[in-house]
Amino acid sequence: MNGPWHSYVYAVGRDGGDLDAVAAALTGFGGSPLRTVVGDGLTAVVSSVPADDFGTDGLTERMADLAELEALARVHHEVVEAAHARTTVLPMRLATVYLDDARVRAVLSERAPEFSELLSWLDGHAELGVKVYADPVRARAEAAPAAPTAGSGRAYLRQRRDQRRLRDDAYRAAGAVAGAVRDTVAPLTRGVVAHRPQQGELASGPGENVANEAYLVPRTRVREFHQALAGLTGSDAGVRVEITGPWAPYSFATRPAESGAA
């Protein structure tokens, strides 16, 4: 292999054959073969990436290119999810790059106590995402049609007032649903991370994302989690609830302080 190359790390797990099997079955970014790097009882899933493209300047340029970023994220996610399907892993942040395998091995040794504790905490768990949307347009569509009125300034003002009321009601209802979600799933979860609500192209579907939270849930209780929230999805006019996952625990690769021990 011609160089120079850096080592791109997808996920870290315990030393063992599960991650070797993942490395043998998939390829990394750019079709580069995956391999494992072992240190202090831990294993990192790694591939080689061009140093010019993944050094400081090259990586900044790549992350600014939406098409390149999407391609990188797709491969990263594929590798992490394949690893998560076989064993407990810590997903690494997108574009976690080290100088070479020797540096990866050194990081595994340096952070072995932290990584090992996290892996024990995450054993048998997956991440589920819950997004709550306020959708005033839907609220207006579901509202009873107004009685016909003459085309007057007073009628226009009444219509505008009704639209503002429906909008405010939708946002209040969305906030109440978001609080109900947290209360409802609390007994089923080990940890929660509140992310910034998604906007623009990042948001999926209609409405405005007002709550975007990730929950760490025992794999054995994923179905129960969905069932617990079934009564909240679409129960209020102008509110939409979206549940995603189960995923590898991306949001819990560092232990959130508010989660506490369980």
Automatic annotation (TrEMBL):
Origin: domain of life: Bacteria
Location of this chain's protein in the cell: Gas vesicle
Pfam families: GvpL_GvpF
InterPro entries cross-referenced by the UniProt entry: GvpL/GvpF
Keywords of this entry: Gas vesicle
Main location: other
Family listed: Belongs to the gas vesicle GvpF/GvpL family.
Protein name according to UniProt: GvpL/GvpF family gas vesicle protein
Species of the source: Streptomyces bugieae
